[in-house]
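Teaching assistant here, posting this on the class forum so everyone can see the example we discussed in section. The complex has two components, and the goal was to see what a joint structure prediction looks like when all of them are supplied at once.
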Amino acid sequence: MKLSDRLLAWARLKSPWITIFNSGACNACDIEVIAAITPRFDVERFGILVKGTPRHADILIVTGPVTKKQATRLRRIYDQMPDPKYVIAMGACGATGGVFRGLYHVVNGVDQVIPVDVWVAGCPPRPDEIIDGVITCLQLMKEDLKHGGREWRTKRTSAPPAAPPEVTA
Amino acid sequence: MTNGLTAQEVAATMNEFGLVDQVRSNRIRIVTPLPRVREALERARRVLACDHLVQIAAVDNRKSFELIYHLTGPHRTVLSIAAEVPRDRPEAPTVSDLLPPAGIYERQIHDLFGIAFVGHPDLRRIILNEDWPGDEFPLRKDWKPRPNVFYGGVPEEAK
């Protein structure tokens, strides 16, 4: 690894920049995210900065079940982020669609549109859970650096399940 | 602040359009045939000072659709003018030229219920996604998503 890469990785882990995208949420998650970035919870002590544009962000926090109208826009925003990029899906809606699952206007979860790295459970998740999600994401970044990319995580899921061991007497 | 309209006042003006009924203290309902809706709205605006369209409600009661135009004015009484739209011919005259805010409600109803408003200048999609199939209306009671139909969102190959 070159020195510049090491410096970049160090800076990214010290200060991940996040951007928040509402993909059709009921606003509860958004309010909790806003609460998380206010001084009471104060994510800046971890160096986490909220950015207004995905082009400056390392982590994308997506709230909501992703409506069909927002799906293409979410994809476009994800494509604009510089690599390496990480996605946190917020709440029950972000994971499966939540109470909106199966409705005519949603695609049932963020992972239907873009790859998700961390899911934060809750409806809505508390601000400290959101901070925990971001910290988990940072640890994931560290692991990815060790493995030289994110493939080590995706490979395991895409590989066919191993055949059950033969039972011998 | 003027006093509210009474059912008698409304009945005196609107009786020829259909049944006038006071459903609540502040709400008077008039059931009128569909072709006379424009006339009724115009009369309510001119005579009863109902110059403010609160909303247009669309109801699917399975046998037919019902459009309910909620009007109010400085008297603060809500006049609900209801008209039935047949299911086999979902068409209604537009009122967007009488009451311009009606245009956007008519676009929404056209999008979700498939009621065409004849004479509307621009009946484009407004709520559903752009790639939604043109002949499906999700707020109709008999609508069910069909399998193997792409209803928009992100197509498989883009994932």
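For the discussion questions: The longest helix of chain A spans residues 127-147. Chain A has a mean pLDDT of 85. Think about how each of these relates to the inputs above.
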